[in-house]
Amino acid sequence: MDAILDGAADVLRQHGLEGTSTTRIAERAGVSIGSLYQYFPNKLAIYRALGERFFGRIDAVAEAIFPALASLPPREAIDTAVRGVISASFLDPALDRILHHVAISRADFEPVAGFEARQEARLAALLRARARELPRPLVDPDLTARVLIRALGGVVSSTCAREPSATSDIRLIDELIRLIEHHLGF
Question: Are 145 and 115 within 8 A, CB to CB?
């Protein structure tokens, strides 16, 4: 399965969505088309599995970082979270762009929706736990988390799509940190 997903990622990066076929994926993966169909009934199933793997890696970074955030000063916690999670998002901007394109065209693309929901829940829990340390009270921690996570996701997705070279620009991450700090009243 990993060989098929690796092959699919390579084909998607090289040929884009329009030029990707199950035949090309099977060839790149070094498996027969029949073997590919034993694991995946169609391209969308491959994209879904690729999305689960891609966003699972980013989610693992977030899961590892979030427990430490409870003991850091608020601004340091913001910095640590953004640098860790966003940096992990930018490891493969070409693939991220393609997977977000699939997600945008299909509202039920679970890998993105599930990833966002987990990040929103983590952030909302953190905001509730640290509410007294924030410069101003939060009206609704769930809504604040939703807005911040989706704003960050939009910037990441748009940057990967429009200017992938900007993903290595540290100023972008600095600006995202300022966005969150400002929103929270720092």
Answer: no
**pLDDT value at 61 more than 70:** yes
pLDDT at 178 (0 to 100) = 96
Taking every pair of C-alpha atoms in the chain, what is the biggest distance, in angstroms?
A: 59
User: CATH number of the domain at 50-184, out of 2.20.25.90, 1.10.357.10, 3.40.50.2000, 3.20.20.150?
Assistant: 1.10.357.10
Cβ contact 44:80 at 8 Å: no
Tell me which residue has tokens 């340390």.
133
The CATH classification number of 1-41 equals 1.10.10.60
Kindly report the backbone phi and psi dihedral angles of residue 169, in degrees, each rounded to the nearest multiple of 5, phi listed first.
-85, 110
Q: What's the confidence (pLDDT) of residue 26?
A: 97
Domains of the chain: which residue ranges? 1-41, 50-184
**pLDDT tens digit sequence for 14-48:** 998 889 999 999 999 999 999 999 999 998 899 88
Distance CA 39, CA 5 (A): 10
Tracing tokens 């999670």 back to the chain, one arrives at 85
Percentage of the residues of the chain whose pLDDT score is greater than 70: 95
